[in-house]
Amino acid sequence: MAGQRFSRRWLLVAAGAAAIVGVSAVQLPAAALDVDAEALRRCIRAEVPPYVGYAEASGRLGLPEIPQLESVTTLLTTTTRIRSYVAGADRWRADQLTGALGDSERDTYHLGAAEYVWDFGGNQLTRVLGQAPLRLPRAGDLLPPDLARRMLGLAPGDPVTAIPARRIAGRDAAGIRLVPTDPDTTVGRVDIWADPTTALPLRVEIAARTGPTLLVSELLEVTDGPPDPAVLRPVVPPGAGAVTASAADLSGALRDLRAPPAPARLAGRARLTLPSTPGSDLPGVGVYGTGLAGFVLIPTGRDVADRAVDGATAAGGTAIPVPFGRAARIGTPLLSVAVRSTGRRGSLLIGTVAADVLQQALLELPARGRPS
Amino acid sequence: MIGVELRLMLRRRRVWLCWVLLCAIPALVAVLLAVTNLAPAPGQGGAFLSAVTSDGQLFPAAALALVLPVFLPITVALVSGDAVAGEASTGMLRYLLVRPVGRLRLLTAKLVSVGAFVLLAVVFVTITSYIVGVLLFGFGADAAVGGAGGITSLSGVVLTPLQLAGRTAATVGYLALCMLAIGAIGLFFSTLTDSPLAAALGVLAFVVVSAILLPLDAAAGIRFYLPTTHWLAWIDLFRDPILWRAVREGVFVQLGYIVVAFGAAWANFATKDVTS
Amino acid sequence: MTVIRTASLTKRFGRVTAVNGVDLTVPAGVRFGLLGPNGSGKTTLVRMLLGLVHPTSGSVELLGRAMPRHAADVLPRVGALVENPAAWPHLSGRANLRLLDAAGRGGRGRDRKARVEDVLARVGLAGVDRRPVKAYSLGMRQRLGIAAALLRGPELLLLDEPTNGLDPRGIGEMRELLLGLSASGVTVVLSSHLLSEVEALCTRVGVMDAGRLVLTEDLDVLRSPTGHVRVRTPDPGSVVGLLNGQVVHRDGDALLVRAPDAGVLNAQLVAAGITVTELSAERRSLEQVVLELTGAGSDRVDP
Predict the structure, then answer these.
(1) Chain B to chain C, count of Cβ pairs less than 8 Å apart?
(2) Which chains share 3+ C-beta pairs under 8 angstroms with C?
């Protein structure tokens, strides 16, 4: 009798635990949506629907630490929490909720031509003037709508197919899959799920040609409609700094390196012409290739290149034999990196192409090592 | 019985020692910070610690972040592990049960007293660290002369003193809930053994395992269900607008732990043979 | 009316059978002594009576209600001292009793102070100060434990080793207290190792051995004459000669004689001119009874 009661109580507790786990874990199946994949792609590319949302982006690219690019490698190798307030294509705010403990925040306000960055850790609001033709990826780029638009824009001619709908942020999202046709790219597929009525992308998955999904970004909470105008107003709290920086500062730093101009062709790919505003050209920087099969050449200082070579070697990369200095490459399924350090400066190549292509490009770089 | 439990707890020297210790640790950190004026870089040290030197009113948040990962769970483990096992080891358990006090009523009273302990612990830390913080670091740059000013939220927006009080109260409530979940687990362990120390060590082992699993990618699937995952969610209360998602999930998980652990404690204790 | 009735009560802890098929009946108003060697199951039986330990099989009825189902109704009418007294060590004895009183239902809070003072006085702790219990002597703790058992004015007192740690004067006081309670209608059940205590206090005894209740009997019956008479005489040879065949044992000048009536025997010896220095009808001692019925306790380990 006692034994029976005993087991009945435990059954009750087990049922309660299962119910609690069930409530949190069960995903409602999405209703089958009948959408035209091609039309949905057009809508996604064409429209910037206003919304307020919270997204988490997880990258598992397995990149080594690259000095001065920590912010990028962090984005691509960890989970990033992003809050976004989007009123339109040129009026938005994206908050990167950062810090080892999540106790910091880096908010980017994009208001027309002006851009502001609030950094809680630095206790400072930076007004960024001008627009650089090329900038490093930042948290806002990982928001599903931005990521989806960028990926679709890079491969406008590649075919898309419909994939099963998914339940995301409490709504049924229609799915499309982009499979790049370019044989050079490492990108195997891009899956996008979007709200069929507003064409707001809610989830993006990027995978290499083989293997698991390496980058997932999903809006976990979405509210349609523009945000409260008050949240789009950057403030300088008392005691905090307010500084103005020019987007051209970066090009100034690059100019100090006195890097040689980027070659017109590397590894058989032509250098793209970057839109340039006066004073903000990026000497020595080159973008090569088209669509999803592209890579970028960035000149660096010697110590940065040295440490990057060390980092790449330590992370399982391979050394590349070069006449002067040292060089190494590391290939992850999605992103490849090659780095060279010669006498006084270095070069860094990053792209969504096979590591072999980057090695070839690296070897084609003018090997002006130590002055002979 | 609840009143009896609370009176028993308040008369225990160990409980007061825990509270004093919890309040002393942040105070020590504050004194060291004030003397050396070496604030840790953002993202290092404890949460909010880098911002404390410019505004003492942020110190309660920093103090809670300091005691949260180790000291608060230790004291909760000690007190909750003692709940039933302590009575068993002194022999009072059998006299309470033949008094008679219903077994479910005894467990409920124990959970309530553990809840009172954690709530008072968090409240005491908050109050003492506010006083210490303001004394050592002063009010922020925008403080009205001789009065409390607002503080800067993580998003840069200034919080009014009223908002700050509200959010601090929400933080206190949230952390008390997190610790009560640990306390409920301690109560369950306490019904499994007659040794208060074994129960407390069991709770600590649970917390440590949870903390070890937290950063593992392989544990990503169960991460949501680990209690320690949600311990830092209260930081989102200091953003503007408040990001409720993590706090909401945290409250759900912690309530789940309380319900399941208390249920398990009841299932085990209701028909347990009291042989101590 | 019976205050305790158990039916084939059995408790197994794993492979050990602590209590085995016990049918115990204790009528109201008696002073019942539970005897048996260590590990014979006395404490487990008491714990089952109080609902602390759940029986593997069999049933318990306390004051006419089934236990442990009706514990909430029955236990307020029972006072108990189980194994040894316990208290919250950091509080004074008075505070302990007040909190214990407040912990359960029943009894108005307003009367609590008077109730506590009353039981403290009855166990001889009326003048106790604010020292915490951890500073108490063994005897004081024992008195406090009995006070706690008396707190609710019980109809049934279940006392395990109530005189443990008390000095002879304390033992006497306790005996007086229990006799007084018994006289006022309280049923007293106590277990003790001190057979003399049980012999002096109880009207009925139960003997347990290896989990079984091997005997339940009134003390008077146990102690009825055995039919033998002890005779001491300076002239034992004449006695043996006179009562040929009736003498069962001879040890110097002490003789054990089979005789139904000591008075008749005395008259017979005196008539024969034999000097008798001592003559008494033999009664069995409780110790003898218990030792005959029980094996070695569980604390003795023989190869």
Answers:
(1) 73
(2) A, B
On whether the pTM is more than 0.90, the answer is no
pLDDT recorded at residue A371: 42
Length of chain C: 303
Domain ranges of chain A: 37-232, 248-364
- Our measurement of the distance from residue B155's CA atom to the centroid of its chain's CA atoms, rounded to an integer in Å, reads 26
- The CATH fold assigned to A248-364 is Protein Transport Mog1p; Chain A (3.40.1000)
Contact between B97 and C74 under an 8 Å Cβ cutoff? The reply is no
| pLDDT by 10-residue block (mean), chain C, 303 residues | 91 91 92 88 91 93 90 91 90 93 80 91 88 91 92 90 84 90 92 83 90 89 82 83 80 83 85 85 81 73 70
Closest listed residue to residue A25, CA positions, set B222, B23, C192, C216: B222
Question: Are residues C100 and B273, on separate chains, in Cβ contact within 8 Å?
Answer: no
Residue B91 DSSP symbol: T
A13 to chain B nearest CA, in Å? Answer: 6
B260 vs A238: CB contact, 8 Å cut-off? no
Top CATH class of A37-232 equals: mainly beta
3-class SS at B39?
A: coil
A83 pLDDT more than 90: yes
Angle (CA) B178 B180 B183, round 5°: 120
Whether chain A has a CB inside 8 Å of the CB on C93: the answer is no
Sheet holding A213-224, edge to edge: A160-168, A171-178, A187-194, A201-208, A213-224, A51-59, A79-88, A91-98, A104-111, A114-119, A124-129, A241-246
Residue B44, classed as helix, strand or coil, is coil
Structure tokens at A177: 């899959």
What is the model's pLDDT at position A277?
Answer: 62
Domains of chain C: residue spans and CATH? 2-222 (3.40.50.300), 225-283 (3.30.70)
pLDDT at B51: 76
